[in-house]
Design goal:
- Residues 313-343 are annotated as: Disordered.
- By secondary structure, this protein is an all-alpha fold.
- Helix content is 69%, strand content 3%.
- The chain has helices at residues 7-68, 74-118, 127-133, 137-167, 183-226, 237-275, 279-300, 320-324, 342-351, 355-376, 381-389, 395-414, 440-456, 460-471, 476-481, 491-511, 517-536, 550-554, 577-581; strands spanning 420-423, 426-428, 563-566, 573-576.
- The strands form two sheets. A two-stranded antiparallel ribbon has the order 1-2. The chain has a two-stranded antiparallel ribbon with strand order 3-4.
- Helix 12 (395-414) crosses helix 16.
- The termini are far apart.
Length: 582
């Protein structure tokens, strides 16, 4: 349904919908009052039990891994064990439990309200029934999902990350160490940065506050009259109207956030001085930080580009492209250069992708491709059982998601895509990517791998070899039995393909450590297991899959040197050689 055009039509639509909105708000609030004690109890009890139950294991394992880490020098280990780990380990239970209480109460109260209002959207049948039942059981189920995701992070992802810290060698055969010679200069640069950056940035933020206030009001009223932006959907009109009333609080919060951020910006001068081994570069950063903040705030507020502050070079190896543009180094996205219209707002809402949607799409692709690979015999019952137990080969755990990512990269490289082709009608680019910062940690390396694949100009046999190399985790015996033909004759080509496969598997392993991945992965393994049983029959003997507990990790310290470690996206298991021989 198209939004009404004209001021009076929009005003009448708003007044006409207001009674319905108030009724839905009251109904949703009643459901929220009933449900929020339950969600608060579920999340508080569940999360607290996980945090406190695993806290002793986290304490012992953190100290053990830091002391055994080959990437860290002796002095750095001492500082981390005395100053850093106690703060993190003591604050984690406190913040985790408090966050569970507040988050559980807020989620239990607000989610039923949103679900009740969304129940009257177009396309739903029996809206009256949905108004009463939506946001009830789903809120409780998602609260349990939060507890499960926290368990996966604390029990599996944590140990996987710490095992990598303990096992990986130092880069360039040189471990990280504290350089005592540069600490006085870094400390002095930090003090100077705080004395200069904090008052100046705070003054700039306070001066730009009124501009942000009236600029925001102007934009919100413009969207209200034209039914654009947050006022495009009728259901959002009351919330967007509330945003107009609360906009001064948002401005005050932005100013306070800028003042708080100024302390971190000023203190970072000490980090620059230490990293560059130069007190002079730390002083240069103190001046450059003012320019960086001024340019960034101008971009956010859609103010003229440029800054009145100088921006000296504070890195020895700073990118020359950042220096050629002068003060305009913080480039403004195209979206800021013209006011969006109603049609462009619709297009942007459709085009912008969400991280959870992309993760769901990846697992749907894994399910389709996995069933095909089961039919071809490349994924066996043993691979599925090992994925359930979390030990052994990583064909399903790491290989299958990496294989699906590689297929998308190959499709994108063949058609010279600027991004990554998710499917025939969806392309993931830098413009429509999810806005979460951590998503860049995966997208940018994947784009680099895509360009490397395009530059390699792989043949069909080389693509097939690379795909099986990624899927089978470099298992030479299984690759040979898969019947894909011999490896490339050139040693250079084989080394390049091996490097691409390892990087892609490393990215997939990092992705597997994030929340919600394990829950989706368990559903994938169950689907593949059912499909394998349907095509090849059920397993002859039922097996009980149990992953080794965190307590089991801790009591195996004496045999850890004689253990062989199998890394996986959901953690790594230490299997003692004596147990393997028995």
């Amino acid at each position: 349904m198209e939004p009404p055009s004209g001021f009076y039509a929009s005003l009448w639509s708003f007044i006409h919908f207001l009674p319905f909105f108030i009724g839905l708000l009251v109904l949703g609030s009643i459901k929220g009052v009933i449900l929020f004690p339950l969600t608060c109890l579920i999340m508080t009890i569940g999360n607290s039990a996980i945090i406190l139950g695993l806290w002793p294991a986290h304490v012992i394992w953190s100290y053990y891994c830091v002391l055994r880490a080959r990437q860290l020098g002796p002095l750095l280990k001492l500082v981390i064990c005395i100053c850093v780990l106690p703060v993190l380990l003591i604050s984690w239970p406190v913040l985790g439990i408090i966050g569970s209480i507040i988050g559980g109460a807020a989620y239990g109260f607000l989610q039923p309200i949103f679900a009740t209002i969304q129940a009257v959207e177009e396309g739903k049948d029996d809206k009256l029934r949905h108004c009463f039942i939506d946001g009830t059981l789903s809120t409780l189920e998602r609260s349990c999902m939060v507890v499960r995701d926290l368990k996966d992070v604390c029990f599996l992802s944590y140990f996987s990350v710490m095992d990598d810290l303990r096992q990986n060698g130092p880069p360039n055969s040189k471990y990280y160490e504290i350089r005592l010679l540069y600490l006085p200069g870094a400390f002095l640069a930090t003090v100077i940065g705080l004395l200069i950056d904090v008052p100046v940035i705070s003054f700039v933020a306070i001066c730009k506050g009124p501009y942000m206030l009236f600029k925001g009001w102007h934009r919100l009223f413009h969207d209200l009259i034209g039914r654009e932006g947050p006022f495009l959907e009728t259901i959002c009109v009351p919330f967007a109207g509330l945003a107009i009333l609360l906009w001064p609080l948002a401005v005050a919060g932005a100013v306070l956030a800028s003042i708080l951020a100024s302390y971190f910006l000023g203190a970072y001068a000490g980090v620059v001085a230490y990293q560059e081994s130069s007190f002079r570069f730390g002083l240069r950063y103190v001046i450059a930080a003012l320019s960086l903040y001024d340019e960034y705030s101008n971009d956010i507020l859609d103010m003229p580009e440029g800054t009145c502050f100088p921006r000296p070079q504070y890195r020895k190896n700073e990118d020359s492209s950042l220096r050629t543009n002068g003060s305009a180094s913080v480039s403004r996205p195209n979206s800021f250069k013209k006011a969006p219209s109603s049609s462009s707002s619709i297009k942007n809402n459709i085009a912008e992708l969400k991280s959870l949607e992309l993760l769901d799409g990846l697992f749907r692709e894994c399910c389709i491709v996995g069933e095909k690979l089961i039919s071809e015999g490349l994924i066996t019952r043993k691979d599925i059982e090992e994925a359930k137990s979390g030990k052994g080969s990583n064909v399903v755990t790491i290989g299958l998601p990496a294989y699906c990512l590689l297929q998308g990269l190959l499709r994108s490289a063949k058609v010279n895509s600027m991004g990554i082709l998710i499917n025939d009608d969806t392309e993931l680019t830098l413009t429509n990517r999810p806005r979460e910062k951590f998503f860049e940690w995966f997208l940018n390396p994947l784009l680099i791998i895509k360009e490397q694949i395009r530059a390699e100009n792989l043949s069909v046999s080389e693509e097939d070899y690379l795909c099986k190399l990624v899927l089978l985790n470099g298992d030479a015996e299984r690759i040979k039995k898969s019947g894909i033909g011999p490896a490339p004759e050139s040693e250079v080509k084989r080394a390049e393909l091996d490097a691409l496969a390892r990087r892609l598997q490393g990215i997939t392993k990092s992705m597997s450590r994030f929340p919600t991945f394990k829950r989706r992965f368990d559903d994938l393994v169950k689907t593949l297991s059912d499909d394998h049983a349907e095509k090849h029959g059920p397993p002859l003997t039922p097996t009980m899959n149990r992953s080794k507990s965190a307590f089991g990790r801790l009591i195996s310290f004496k045999s850890v040197r004689g253990a062989r470690t199998y890394g996986s996206g959901q953690g790594s298991e230490h299997i003692v050689r004596d147990e393997e021989n028995s």
